[in-house]
Design brief:
This protein is of the alpha+beta class. It has four helices and eight strands. The protein folds into two domains: about 1-5 and about 70-170, PH-domain like (Roll); about 10-65.
């Protein structure tokens, strides 16, 4: 079974870019602490204040980030695709009734330095599942949070293909 958090608000990506900026401020301030013995007291106090403010901002941004993603989840297995909100099922699709599934899956954003640079530039990788049923399309953007879930979605794609379902994997 595959599970992931649905991104409900597309502005999440812009907020994520800002969060990276705020996360870099404490890093810069901490680099000043390496030379604490040579630092004037007023500069040391000023650096501590900036560090505390930046850490509070990062925590607040993380809270906003979680609120944009935690309410809805997408769950898929070999026979059903279910959208849930706070554990309650909102809508369910039978896989056998779907005409086509298009999937792009990317492991959690911001894992390495290259990913952080790309996010800061605005090149944010997105994962989505687009389902088509009788000409009607629905798209769900989501965040894959673990390698295990990435393996699960790849296994699911192979199972769906083995059951003669039209599944397109976007790279």
């Amino acid at each position: 079974m595959f599970k992931a958090k649905i991104i409900e608000d597309i502005s999440l990506y812009q907020k994520l870019r800002k969060q990276i900026f705020w996360a870099l401020i404490p890093l810069g301030v901490l680099s000043f602490f390496t030379n604490v013995a040579q630092m004037p007291l007023i500069l040391f106090i000023f650096s501590c204040v900036i560090l505390v403010v930046a850490l509070i901002a990062v925590r607040k941004k993380r809270y906003i980030f979680e609120n944009l993603t935690l309410d809805k989840t997408i769950e898929a297995d070999i026979s059903n695709l279910t959208i849930k909100e706070k554990g309650d099922e909102i809508v369910s699709f039978s896989i056998s009734e779907l005409d086509k599934i298009t999937i792009k899956s990317v492991v959690d954003i911001g894992e390495g330095a290259t990913d952080l640079i790309n996010i800061a530039k605005g090149n944010i990788p997105t994962s989505f599942m687009e389902i088509e049923k009788k000409g009607h399309k629905e798209r769900f953007e989501f965040i894959i949070e673990s390698h295990y879930m990435m393996v699960q979605i790849n296994k699911l794609i192979e199972q769906w293909k083995a059951n003669q379902l039209q599944v397109d994997k976007v790279i």
